[in-house]
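batch_manifest entry 22 of 60
target: Phasin protein
source organism: Acidiphilium rubrum
requested by: lab member K.T.
priority: normal
notes from requester: please return tokens only, no post-processing; we will run our own comparison against the previous entry in this batch. if the run fails, retry once and flag.
--- input ---
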Amino acid sequence: MSDPSANPLAALSELYMKGLAAFQSAAGSPGGGSSDQSGTQGFNPAAMLPGGTPPEVAAALTDAWRISATSALRYGQALMAVQLRYQAALLHAMSDRANGRAAETLVLADDARAFLREIGDTAEREARRLHMELDQVSEALAQALAQAADPADPAKRSYQVKA
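--- output ---
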């Protein structure tokens, strides 16, 4: 990897591509060709669970891992897109100011604030999406375990609405 301070966009892009290659190799996708992490080939988070773990729980944890990895990649890609949109304008305004050319301080501040606001909005959008997807996995797990439970089991919890 080159010096990240010299070209932050290239460093972020390189990091994203490494993550994408690791994800593809873990998912068994053919696009993950030259991954340096041969240990991730065929990665199965459910295999790390202790014996006797219900298959529903193992499947839910595998889905949660897949959703989290996909979310991280989506977020990285969205951040790269935001940086691409603002990088040229911000660097141009900063170089004008550093070289003594008349650069509007307010324009630079507005561009920087818009950049930071969009980064925050991107994080918030992805967090909402991740939360929704993980809630769906949680609900599916609860339903699967409820169906698998023996209705004659006296240890079954009864749910009551709190007043």
